[in-house]
Specification:
The structure is a homodimer. Chain A is α/β, with parallel strands linked by helices and about 450 residues long. The first copy, chain A, contains 19 helices and 15 strands. In chain A, helix 5 packs across helix 6 and helix 9 packs antiparallel against helix 10.
Chain lengths: ~450, ~450
């Protein structure tokens, strides 16, 4: 019956992000245009600033974190690393369980780690406005917060069904001064097309992305920001793992296994990549295993194809080499909204393909039972996305109980569940179910994979 | 453009609570029974354990915090003290503004500081079940969490209108294993009476308290727990101010003025009393002013009478000497649910009566505008209760701007607003209003003050 929080001082916030590209056995496969040729930087400059594109393309191991970004990080970072002693005791496992708690941020998740630098680099490039899309609202609220910090106007296209059903994330964005639109709107061609097709369209992430990109591409003072998948987003999230390494050093421990939820990949990458660096440098005290945990209903890494595909549903983006279920694939409705993505980060995908990391898929009900067990032991109610990592970590802790191994397990508690109690409510009411892997839908979506070159 | 968080280590969690009774110029006025005589401990033992009653009556300056309670505190404590440099800059004030952030707890507010020891002391006394009431759900969820930590069953009578309209706090309590009932129920006489009178009764805090007390009084294995007002609750909250003192010492500063929201009083007391101790001991580096901030629509301390009155609406509790608007007074609906109480803590009331602290009342709209300004500068979206303290602190910072004084201001950011976005939503939609002080209602309620002795 003890618990432990390992804190750091403000000075311990990393001064550089870690770029895993420098340590990959093979260079990352480049994004391709419709002609099968690598996409030119010029084309990307329509919606991203040069300083961010530099990061996107960089092979430098360490990228400096600008001091104004560190100053905003200081509003909630360093985040605590906690030893889950009460959970260990409840499980009766000899394993040691640690978690990094990112729910202490203003938006309650890890998303501001990238929203803040994206807003700052855009401000430095003279950009006045950022557009983005949001589903459940975690990324949209983080960019709203970040824009407010640096005086950038943020315009969020929020999927209509969420806009209507989740007014709280919307008011959160408004509190930070962002404008939020119910997508599809009549302000863009993509929105008007969607409305012409169906005046009562509930919207989709695909339509919202198209609207946000269209507005950004059409205005010189406006750029677009994405909350996961791309290299620079994964880069920014490495503050999580870099801090965690200092915290493990403080208590003289080091993870045998690392678990993180994986949708677009930035959550997993932020937690895992800095430890992967030790493996690459052969400076790690032990051989660590890295486990990306995804929902069984959207099992991109465990059941997808490794192929070039579009990053969005409408085919506006460059082609990326990644694990994908096909860009036409619409995952069944599960509550871990942040994990419902047909593809995955190209960096995470390549590391999996090359055998440096692992992936596992877990069923929805088992993730909620893990979240409730965690809340009852450690107090914090986790976000449904985080419950995926908790499930996999608990499963390993129970394996350790059988084998008697005292492994050190580490997972990323990427956010609190205070905005997700409706999902818990449904779980308690027995209204949630596990899903079969939708084989037919995936086969159909994979059949439409673009032909490259 | 800088910000600063002052952290402490787990070892810095206080080992003792501070009891202000030891330093009050006059002993606290005793609670009285219906006969005008001080209430006997025996009568209270029906619903409180002896170890808690000892704290309630104690005049000892320091009360030890049991190690198992400190171990649960460690799940989120010590909480950070933050310098609001970005807010200072936005205001252009020479004042220094600090806030203690209690929103990092599992329930997002300061309430677990007392829920945890209350659950533990009851468990030590062999109690198996705790009953309580809750309106918006902040206290109920904190007691649910605390009960889960020590294996105590928690039964929460939740006001029906909140039960129906705020399912999220309810699911939060269920996550921690508590049973939640829509009050009035048919399980108690008080509930059945209320339903007989009005089968469609929306419930009230008064009815819910009566139900919880009735169940606790009628079962030997069951006690009752209260979230504010009483001496032992204020005592437990002093961990806030005790930590803050260490944090101020770390940066070599000390508050000239302290602001905290004031409803039942535990929020204010927890923040202010440990600094008041320095004033009593003449060991303070400066003369500090202590400001309790209450809503203009329920201005107990600024407009109430100092008189013996019941603590609850139904007259079940002993009489307490306090500022009161009359136990029949029903405050107009404002969203800072935690501040809607007709009376106030007897300790806070007596300190105000004796001139050791001050009180100020603020209007609702001005508290939301202060909360939005804070969120836009510092990132964190505050609970509506906390916005009251922020308003008064900002007002003082603006006075400092006029006078050029570089005062050190300190307020308690008692919780985050992630469960209160509906109130922000109404504020942005222009649906919230300021309230006139309801003179006629208060005069009517005061007319029914009980006659004592």
């Amino acid at each position: 019956m003890d618990s432990l929080r390992i804190n750091l001082e403000a000075d311990d916030i990393p001064t550089h992000w870690y770029n895993v590209v420098a340590d990959m056995p093979n260079p990352p496969a480049p994004p391709l245009g419709p002609d099968g040729q690598p996409v030119s930087a010029e084309r990307m400059l329509a919606i991203f600033p040069g300083n961010i594109l530099e990061q996107e393309m960089s092979a430098e191991r360490w990228i400096p974190i600008p001091e104004p970004v560190r100053e905003i990080y200081r509003l909630w970072r360093p985040s605590p690393l906690c030893r889950a002693l009460r959970l260990e005791q409840a499980l009766g496992t000899p394993a040691k369980i640690y978690y990094k708690y990112e729910g202490v941020s203003p938006t309650g998740s890890h998303k501001p780690n990238s929203a803040v630098p994206q807003a700052w680099f855009n401000a430095q490039a003279g950009v006045k406005r950022l557009t983005t899309e949001t589903g459940a609202g975690q990324w949209g609220s983080s960019l709203a917060f970040a824009g407010q910090m640096f005086g950038i106007d943020v315009r969020v296209y929020m999927v209509k069904v969420s806009y209507d059903q989740k007014p709280f994330r919307r008011s959160m964005m408004q509190t930070w001064g962002a404008e939020v639109f119910s997508s599809p709107t009549d302000m863009t061609q993509a929105g008007r097309d969607a409305l012409a097709k169906d005046p009562d369209s509930p919207g989709s992430l695909g339509i919202a992305i198209s609207e946000a990109v269209e507005e950004a591409a059409g205005r010189a003072d406006t750029n677009y920001a994405l909350g996961s998948v791309l290299n620079h987003v994964l880069l920014h999230q490495t503050v999580i793992g870099l801090e965690a390494k200092k915290q493990f050093a403080k208590v003289g421990d080091y993870p045998d296994m690392i678990f993180a939820p994986c949708g677009g990949g930035s959550n997993f990458a932020g937690c895992a990549f800095p430890f992967l660096a030790d493996q690459a440098a052969a400076s790690a005290p032990k051989k660590t295993r890295f486990v990306a945990v995804e929902p069984a209903s959207c099992p991109t890494l465990t059941r997808g194809h490794y192929a070039y595909d579009f990053g969005d549903a409408s085919g506006y983006t460059p082609l990326m080499l990644m694990y994908t279920l096909g860009h036409d694939f619409v995952p069944p409705g599960i509550h871990a909204g942040g994990l419902r993505y047909h593809g995955d980060s190209p960096l995470v995908s390549q590391l999996l393909k090359e055998g440096l990391i692992e992936a596992v898929a877990v069923q929805q009900l088992s993730t909620f039972s893990a979240g409730v067990m965690f809340a009852q032991a450690e107090g914090i109610i986790p976000a449904p996305e985080s419950n995926h990592a908790i499930r996999a970590c608990i499963d390993e802790a129970l394996r350790c109980k059988e084998t008697g191994e005292a492994k050190t397990l580490f997972f990323n508690l990427s956010g609190h569940g205070h905005f997700d109690m409706a999902a818990y409510d449904q779980y308690f009411a027995g209204k949630l179910q596990d899903g079969e892997f939708p084989d037919a839908d995936v086969q159909a979506a994979l059949a439409s994979l673009p032909k490259v070159g």
